[in-house]
């Protein structure tokens, strides 16, 4: 390894020699690591001139309509296909898409009204669809080996040797993704298409759907396989919140482009059919130098002087954001949080800036009432530098009606008490070695679909104590949770409400509490830094 490569490796991990101390000393090293830089990952540099910020209008993803309704169940159809989109102005970029658009089409649903979404795979690789944040039966949750094989593959046997092998450490070299599914005795491998059933018996919230194929989640999301899904209910409807064009979905995702306008990603096998993983410099996570919002680079959105509801999703692979709204004179505008990953809070929480990790969602109100028509407000990223410090601009073009910020929001948040927990678990998320290479481990072990890591009983309340070496946004499938503490102290202000992803900062420990209800079966918990996830930082949860 060259000197520059070694230095790059240390920047990637963001923890230097402290990683070895963590492995030796365990949880007690967290305080020392917490002083390390708050960045995990390395940024790609685009190979072509980038457009000036705030010149492209903010696009709004199309809302998908049902193709039919049967016995109260709405049926949707989505074709996964490659198409060329104009992401950067005047330049065509080949992307993998849901329905030919990026982000994928938005699905709007009601609490308790089931939907079936049939996905047809016309991409060149197997895929898996996961509805992130959904309370979904295990058979339809998008387990990483439950593959949908491409329509172009006439038969599994003809292509098993070409589908891609397991990533560093958790599949044998030379095994294909199709073989991974066959090697997992519980996997369900479908040819061409699959109908995913979502009961949606859950609180109103913003979910998102994305690819979840074992070892290749990162590059698949990077290439475009992500879309938004909203659940509505009567409780949300009863709160006086902005609606219509005053409710704006914002999927934030960083990307990089090569000189020809194609998406740049440091995959070891660009076809995503062979060796999984990324080049060594990017083992900590892949960051892009272009900030896209709803698929547009640094867009501008025309608004009035009223109150807007921003439904914010961080769909980046590894980039964290610290969002702030700033007027032209430098004055901050409050971001008033009204919801978290799993729906409305009990009461609003006011922020001057808001940290958001990959896969986290925030429901935020912003009041432009004190701004003059013609003025502009920037949504900035305080963790960014140069171009990555800008996200979006609001241009106030007309007067709008004033609106009151509600004092109370929802009264259906679950109450779980620490004393009712049947189990307290300690789980460490940290780097390690596996099969002679770098990996990211949960409790010292890389992901293995044949191993059960945690078994819990349906209905049990548990407390999980989590510890990180670097940034790890930890996501639990099926259930929402509350944050009890961070580093032995109080949760952060943005930890309010019911969450399904918690952003662990470098060297940080946190406690969460949840009730494991819903459905029996095999689920996952994992880091949602997509590169960490692909390189082993995922574990099985068996609900019995």
Protein model, in words:
A hairpin with a 4-residue loop joins β19 and β20 (332-333). 9% of the residues lie in helices and 39% in strands. The chain has 544 residues and is mainly beta.
Helix-strand blueprint:
Blueprint (H helix, E strand, L loop, with lengths): L2 H11 L4 H8 L4 H4 L8 E2 L24 E3 L2 E14 L5 E7 L5 E7 L4 E7 L7 E4 L15 E2 L6 H4 L17 H7 L6 E2 L1 E6 L6 E7 L5 H6 L3 E7 L1 H4 L9 E9 L30 E2 L2 E4 L2 E2 L2 E5 L2 E8 L6 E7 L4 E2 L1 E6 L2 E9 L2 E3 L4 E7 L8 E6 L8 E9 L24 E12 L2 E6 L11 E3 L4 E8 L3 E5 L5 E5 L14 E4 L4 E7 L5 E7 L2 H5 L3 E6 L1
Parallel strand pairs: 1-14, 3-6, 5-12, 8-9, 13-18, 17-26, 27-30, 29-36
Antiparallel strand pairs: 2-3, 3-4, 6-10, 7-11, 11-12, 13-15, 15-16, 18-24, 19-20, 19-23, 19-25, 21-22, 21-24, 25-26, 27-28, 30-34, 31-33, 31-35, 32-34, 35-36
């Amino acid at each position: 390894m060259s000197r520059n490569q070694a230095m790059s490796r240390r920047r990637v991990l963001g923890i230097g020699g402290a990683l070895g101390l963590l492995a030796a000393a365990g949880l007690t090293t967290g305080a020392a690591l917490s002083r390390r830089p708050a960045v995990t990952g390395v940024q790609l540099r685009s190979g072509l001139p980038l457009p000036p910020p705030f010149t492209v209008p903010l696009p709004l993803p199309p809302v998908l309509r049902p193709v039919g309704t049967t016995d109260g169940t709405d049926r949707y159809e989505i074709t996964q296909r490659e198409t060329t989109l104009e992401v950067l102005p005047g330049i065509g970029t080949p992307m993998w898409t849901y329905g030919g658009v990026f982000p994928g089409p938005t699905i709007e649903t009601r609490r308790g009204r089931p939907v079936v979404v049939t996905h047809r795979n016309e991409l060149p690789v197997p895929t898996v669809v996961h509805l992130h944040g959904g309370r979904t039966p295990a058979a339809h949750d998008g387990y990483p080996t439950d593959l949908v094989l491409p329509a172009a593959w006439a038969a599994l046997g003809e292509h098993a040797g070409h589908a891609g092998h397991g990533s560093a450490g958790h599949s044998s070299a030379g095994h294909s993704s199709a073989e991974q599914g066959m090697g997992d005795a519980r996997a369900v491998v479908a040819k061409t298409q699959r109908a995913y059933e979502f009961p949606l018996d859950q609180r109103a919230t913003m979910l998102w759907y994305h690819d979840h194929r074992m070892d290749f989640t990162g590059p698949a999301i990077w290439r475009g396989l992500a879309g938004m899904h909203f659940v509505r209910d009567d409780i949300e409807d009863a709160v006086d919140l902005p609606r219509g064009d005053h409710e704006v979905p914002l999927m934030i995702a960083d990307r990089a482009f090569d000189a020809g306008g194609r998406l740049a990603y440091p995959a070891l096998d660009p076809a995503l059919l062979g060796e999984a993983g990324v080049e060594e410099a990017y083992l900590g996570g892949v960051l892009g130098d272009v900030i896209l919002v709803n698929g547009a680079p640094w867009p501008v959105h025309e608004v009035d002087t009223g109150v807007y509801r921003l439904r914010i999703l961080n769909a980046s692979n590894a980039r964290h954001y610290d969002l702030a709204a700033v007027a032209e004179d430098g004055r901050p505008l409050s971001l008033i949080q009204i919801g978290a990953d799993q729906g409305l809070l009990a009461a609003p929480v006011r922020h001057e800036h808001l940290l958001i990790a990959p896969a986290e969602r925030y429901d935020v109100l912003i009041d432009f009432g004190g701004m003059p028509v013609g003025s502009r407000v920037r949504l900035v990223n305080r963790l960014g530098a140069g171009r990555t410090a800008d996200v979006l601009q609001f241009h106030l073009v007309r007067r709008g009606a004033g609106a009151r910020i509600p004092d109370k929001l929802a009264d259906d948040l679950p109450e779980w008490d620490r004393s009712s927990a049947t189990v307290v678990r300690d789980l460490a998320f940290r780097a390690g070695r596996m099969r002679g290479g770098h990996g990211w481990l949960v409790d010292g072990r890389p992901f293995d679909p044949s191993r059960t890591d945690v078994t819990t009983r349906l209905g049990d309340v548990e407390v999980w104590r989590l510890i990180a070496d670097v940034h790890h946004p930890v996501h639990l499938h099926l259930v929402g949770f509350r944050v009890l503490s961070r580093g032995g102290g109080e949760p952060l202000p943005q930890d309010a409400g019911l969450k399904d992803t918690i952003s662990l900062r470098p060297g940080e420990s946190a406690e969460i509490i949840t009730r494991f209800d819903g459905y029996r079966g095999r689920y996952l918990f994992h880091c949602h830094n997509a590169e960490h996830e692909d390189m082993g930082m995922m574990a099985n949860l068996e609900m019995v």
